[in-house]
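A reminder from the course coordinator: this example appears on the midterm review sheet, so study it carefully.

Given structure:
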């Protein structure tokens, strides 16, 4: 048994198991049945709003948009959730193409998913009033994924803000730990014993922070946060100099595996796309619907060259898309296409993790 203290909060870790975020704990058998029967498990979508950060790697880049400048039909957003339920969707992911927690529609979306017995995961930067203690207790059934690119003051440099983002984010982390979002039951998932958490970390690997990743990874393990270690998919010239070479990424995968096995006694398959965590299976049982009402296989496919989105006619929508959806398995086509298009050598283990 391992005892861990984080600031003023003492945490007891009952077992050294790798965490899996709640509502991503779906078995391979369930996913296979979903594919065979032409069904969906998840819907990925956005809330329409601006953002209080200015991340250079953002794929929306509408940093200064105000809420009133966004043309959104809230009933249509709710209508999308209702249609998803009819197509057997079990959970909805609200991604941070914008900052979801600064728009009031988020509460309406959460309430609607509850009424339909669906689950929700919110991707957020965690530096908004949404995460005040008096408010967060209303969302104990929601899982959250946070930007966690640094544990130091450099985090503010990565998100280009003039307020103390790092401190606000850390206060939210302490609050969720205090409210037991990171301590849940154990389960056996695909023949591997895992521990459930309701907190995940989006860990973007860049040249400027790769040296920090091992410590960020340890922080996640010590606090039962699911790490999602990944690179961005370059789609324009905003950050080419900060893209991490694939050789360095391969070395990082080995390093994280060694940390798990030697420091935490955790042994997991080597070929997870998110190293020492889980696979990304968006292309199999997700669809991504944007604020412009376009449908893509996943967030990454939005930037594939010549990839035409499917516009939503309300009588067909997701059902039409499922029929046309590629029956790929656990692989990340956008990253593979991007690497090959730029003639970048891919180490065997990374290629295997992307192919699944």
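Designed residues:
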């Amino acid at each position: 048994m391992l005892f861990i203290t984080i600031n003023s909060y003492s945490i007891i870790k009952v077992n050294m198991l790798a965490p899996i975020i709640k509502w991503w704990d779906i078995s391979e058998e369930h996913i296979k049945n979903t594919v065979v029967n032409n069904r969906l498990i998840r819907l990925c979508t956005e809330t329409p709003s601006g953002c209080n950060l200015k991340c250079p790697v953002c794929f929306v880049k509408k940093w200064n948009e105000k809420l009133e400048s966004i043309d959104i039909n809230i009933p249509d957003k709710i209508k999308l959730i209702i249609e998803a339920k009819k197509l057997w969707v079990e959970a909805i992911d609200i991604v941070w193409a914008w900052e979801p927690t600064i728009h009031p529609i988020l509460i309406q979306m959460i309430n609607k998913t509850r009424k339909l017995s669906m689950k929700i995961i919110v991707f957020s930067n965690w530096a908004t009033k949404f995460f005040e203690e008096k408010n967060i207790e209303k969302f104990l059934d929601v899982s959250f994924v946070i930007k966690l690119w640094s544990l130091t003051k450099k985090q503010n440099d990565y998100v280009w803000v003039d307020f103390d983002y790092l401190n606000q984010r850390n206060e939210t982390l302490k609050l969720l730990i205090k409210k037991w979002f990171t301590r849940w039951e154990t389960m056996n998932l695909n023949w591997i014993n895992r521990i459930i958490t309701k907190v995940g970390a989006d860990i973007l690997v860049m040249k400027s922070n790769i040296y920090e990743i091992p410590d960020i990874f340890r922080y996640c393990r010590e606090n039962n946060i699911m790490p999602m270690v990944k690179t961005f998919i370059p789609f324009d010239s905003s950050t080419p100099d900060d893209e991490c070479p694939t050789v360095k990424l391969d070395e990082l995968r080995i390093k994280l595996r060694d940390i798990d096995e030697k420091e935490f006694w955790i042994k997991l398959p080597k070929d997870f796309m998110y190293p020492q965590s889980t696979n990304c299976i968006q292309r199999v049982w997700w669809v991504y619907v944007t604020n412009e009402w376009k449908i893509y296989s996943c967030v990454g496919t939005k930037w594939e060259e010549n990839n035409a989105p499917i516009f939503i006619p309300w009588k067909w929508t997701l059902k039409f898309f499922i029929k046309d959806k590629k029956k790929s398995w656990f692989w990340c086509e956008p990253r593979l296409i991007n690497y090959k298009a730029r003639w970048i050598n891919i180490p065997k283990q990374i290629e295997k993790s992307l192919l699944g």
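The chain is about 30% helix and 15% strand. The CA atoms of residues 40 and 249 lie 32 Å apart.
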